[in-house]
Amino acid sequence: TETYIKAIDAAGALNAFVHKTPEIARAQAAAADARLKAGDAPDMCGIPLGIKDLFATKGVPSQAASGILAGFKPEYESTVTSQLFADGAVMLGKLNMDEFAMGSANESSVYGPAVNPWRANDSDAALTPGGSSGGSAAAVAADLCLAATGTDTGGSIRQPAAFTGTTGIKPTYGRVSRWGIIAYASSLDQAGPMTKDVRDAAIMLKAMSGVDAKDSTSADIAVPDFEAALTGDIRGKTIGIPREYRIEGLSPEIQKLWDDGIAMLKDAGAKVVDISLPHTKYALPAYYVIAPAEASSNLARYDGVRFGHRAQLSAGDGINEMYEKTRAEGFGPEVQRRIMVGTYVLSAGFYDAYYNRARRVRTLVKRDFEMAFADGVDAILTPATPSSAFALGKESADPVEAYLNDVFTITVNLAGLPGVSLPAGQDSKGLPLGLQLIGKPWEEGELLNIAYSLE
Ligand code: GLN
Fold first, then answer.
1. In what order do the strands lie in the sheet with 90-95?
2. Residue range of the domain that includes 173
3. Count of other CB atoms within 10 angstroms of residue 375
4. How does pLDDT run across 423-444, given as a tens digit for each residue?
5. Number of structural domains, the chain?
6. Active-site residue numbers?
7. Angle at which helices 198-208 and 79-86 pack, to 10 degrees?
8. Pairing mode, strands 379-383 and 238-242
């Protein structure tokens, strides 16, 4: 713990930690030592973690990297962090992220962007660690913590993992309680671990998982020992390669990464088959209707009354001015854009044309996967992202271009499936690239084992 506290202090330029908690870490580490000595050491005992700022941590600033939650210190602990702490984990601090988890480059944070510890071999330009869990990814990659929590609504665990050479899994929707995680799009949000490797992900996922009476969408399904599933034996497994993910303009380097992954799976004794997921091309637009719609509803609670920031009012201002000024000052531009899009697609005149149509697309996307699994496919292999980490500043310059970056990850959230991103080599600039494996619902153990065989 002391080593990590020092490393965090020395790595301020990465802007990964936005709030450090060394005193809490030392107290938790001492308690973990005592448990170890007493022979009562659960899996996470004494493991120093970073916690994404989206998780409510009792008495510790939890702002979702937003100005509107300035000064907010929850009086409660999220279920995920309670479970991790009960298991002996140590919290080093809160990690940078996109504001309310909206983004793919960590550029929408009120704290400024986190920075990728990797640099291209042909340029000194600072690169994004990805987003929204950019601080988590940067911190794990730079050894500022042993592992971190992330959340994934449309790829926010898997894309930053791919950009930083780390491993991340978004579990099946309902595997991990969302209670105490500041909501973005509730029907898509899931928390998961971001780690150095697949084994750590398996161990930490088990500690995070389980039914929770405080989250009615958490599933009452037994949590297996995911680590025990890591045999590395994938003989006889069937891996699907979805034709529709060979998108136009896919770079030869990404194509090669994918082909190499296919060859490794074949060498390990898996059967690789071509599959079709015909509604893939509608997933991205459907996501960028559904996620903002849910966000506009979830973010209505930030009104200057109950939490965080309240604007200075002028004489004669009433409650409407208070709401307007508070929200205009507190929310950054990307969050305001999403609230406007979401409010528009939910409005009486456009609800059927946009929101209801997007929901129908979502069902079709889910059905595509169900049919592939019914045909005997055990998991699906794709690239995690269409490129390696890009330069900071690019996302804010062109938000629609940034949305396109989520093309491989978003279908998994729409379908509620587990997806893992694991490091799988580097591009010609020496930057890490990630492969994604998509699994059957509740089969995270099998999915992690296939990932393990590629490690
Ligand atoms: N980039 C996507 C978005 O901005 C995904 C974010 C996420 O998974 N939290 O919505």
1. 17-20, 90-95, 48-52, 147-152, 190-195, 167-170, 419-426, 432-439, 379-383, 238-242, 271-275
2. 1-455
3. 11
4. 999 999 999 999 999 999 999 9
5. 1
6. 52, 132, 156
7. 110
8. parallel
Q: Is the CB of 152 under 6 A from ligand 1?
A: yes
Residue 54, classed as helix, strand or coil, is: coil
Q: Per residue in 46-67, is it b (16+ CB within 10 Å) or e — as a string?
A: bbbbbbbbbbbbbebbbbbbbb
**Kind and range of the H or E element at 400?**
helix 399-404
| pLDDT higher than 90, residue 285 | yes
| Beta carbon of 421 within 6 Å of any ligand 1 atom | no
The response to whether residue 103 sits with its C-beta less than 6 Å from ligand 1 reads: yes
Q: Which atom of ligand 1 is nearest to the CA of 133?
A: 9
Specify the residue with its C-alpha closest to ligand 1, atom 10. Answer: 102
Distance separating alpha carbons of residues 38 and 31, to the nearest angstrom = 11
CA of 101 to the centre of ligand 1 (A): 6
| 152 Cβ contact list (under 8 Å, min separation 6) | 133, 158, 168, 170, 189, 190, 191, 192, 409, 413, 419
| CA gap 86, 98 in Å, rounded | 28
pLDDT 10s digits, 324-369: 999 999 999 999 999 999 999 999 999 999 999 999 999 999 999 9
Q: Ligand 1 center to residue 103 CA distance, Å?
A: 5
Instruction: Tell me, in angstroms, the distance from the centre of ligand 1 to residue 131's CA.
Output: 7
Contact in structure between 62 and 327 (CB atoms under 8 Å): no
Residue from 69, 140, 130, 90 nearest 303 by CA: 69
Question: Which tokens go with 385?
Answer: 């992202």
Burial of 349 (0-12, 13-18, 19+ CB in 10 A): exposed
Give distance in angstroms: CA of 157 to centre of ligand 1: 9
Cβ of 136 closer than 6 Å to ligand 1, yes or no, is no
> Residue 290 sits in a domain of what CATH number?
3.90.1300.10
Please give the distance, rounded to the nearest whole angstrom, from the Cα atom of residue 212 to the centre of ligand 1.
25
Q: Which of ligand 1's atoms lies nearest the C-alpha of 104?
A: 1
CB of 102 shorter than 6 A to ligand 1: yes
Strands 167-170 and 419-426: antiparallel
Kindly report the average pLDDT of the chain as a whole number.
97
